[in-house]
Amino acid sequence: MTFEQQWIEYDYNPFVLFSSNAKVLSLNSEAQFLLGFVTTEELFNLATTYANVSFGFKTTFLELEFGRYKFFAITVGYENDEAIGIKLYQSPSFKLNKPKPIGELANIYALVDLCILTYSINSKIIFEKDFDPTIPEIIIDSNNFIKILNKAYSCFENNQKIVTKIFYRVGEHIKFEDKKYSIFSVEVYSQNINEEKVNELKVLATNTNFYIDIQKKVTINIPMIIS
After folding, report:
1. Per the confidence metrics, is the pTM higher than 0.70?
2. Which of 88, 89, 100 is nearest to 47 (CA)?
3. pLDDT tens digit sequence for 193-213
4. What rounded mean pLDDT belongs to the chain?
């Protein structure tokens, strides 16, 4: 996979490339999750409806909602009659209302690696990492974060591979004491999820200041407080 292909694969926004007869030629990881809420036929019809009259690319701003996904714009592009691509831009609709987190300055990568090392000692699971390397040290309750992340891994313990992704939530923020903070996420996912463990995670999360989103993935959303 080339560097450019990796950018598409790990983009926060879904991307699908169709053939002229609506067959999916390729799609990124986010689009795979989106297809749990919308059919390929609907996406293909959306692409052909909003495509440029002639060859090229066209961005249209519109509100779309498929399950938990909300989008504010799409870009459709094609260079010939053989294939057409569509990219959907997720809306920054994340809402947080808990108190400002307290804790100590810590390296999020070190904390995640510690959890992976601890969890993998007696496990044959392959842990794959997809980290944005630019996130600085942040104020975080390390003990509770480790508990929650370990519990998140237990939700996927019946899989051969677990992916951990760390990424910025583009355009999203939270305000504490009239000051805005960007948000990043630690996301854990695999093929199968254990609903019993999910319920345990939900109970654990209610007693912390962490913002957890549980769908087919477990996402821990963290404000980027550096001082």
Report:
1. no
2. 88
3. 999 999 999 888 887 888 888
4. 89
**Cα pseudo-dihedral 164, 170, 175, 181, rounded to 10:** 70
The residue whose two tokens read 């996301």 is 187
Beta strands in the chain (DSSP E): 15-19, 24-27, 56-66, 69-78, 83-90, 104-106, 126-131, 138-140, 161-176, 179-189, 211-214, 217-223
The tokens for 180 are 């805005």
Task: Report whether 6 contacts 15 (CB < 8 A).
Answer: no
8 A C-beta contact, residue 125 and residue 162: yes
Q: Which residues of the chain fall short of a pLDDT of 70?
A: 92-99, 171
